[in-house]
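From the pipeline queue, job 12 of 40. The input is one protein chain; the requested action is below.

Action: predict structure.
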Amino acid sequence: MKYFTIEELVKSPTAKRKGIDNRPNEKVKKNLTLLVEKILDPLREAWGAPIIVTSGYRCGKLNRAVGGASGSQHMLGQAADIRTVSDSPFANKLLFDKIRELKLPFDQLIDEYGYNWVHVSYGPKNRRQILHIK
């Protein structure tokens, strides 16, 4: 893990505000480590600038609090919502395209609401599923 830490992948203002314990167990930590090693670090290296994780691991209680999908890979430590430092839809689309260009082994790659952020996951299914949520 070169550019990211477990701490930043579990940090949540919502958890802090609501008093939710969002500490990951060892299995989740292993999944987060794989997500970083297989997706996030190579992406950051190629991108050449910081990438912001807006949501990483979410325990079940936190996932419900933020309205996450009931089967969200965030709850397994297999997904992160990311954005560029500029946080413009244009730059976030370039980040999305970079993931595809690098042929990273993602499970899901999702453009969320016109590239407001990018959801990327790494997991055993390796579906390489690309979605656009309007």
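Job complete. Residues 6-133 form a domain with the Muramoyl-pentapeptide Carboxypeptidase; domain 2 fold (CATH 3.30.1380.10).
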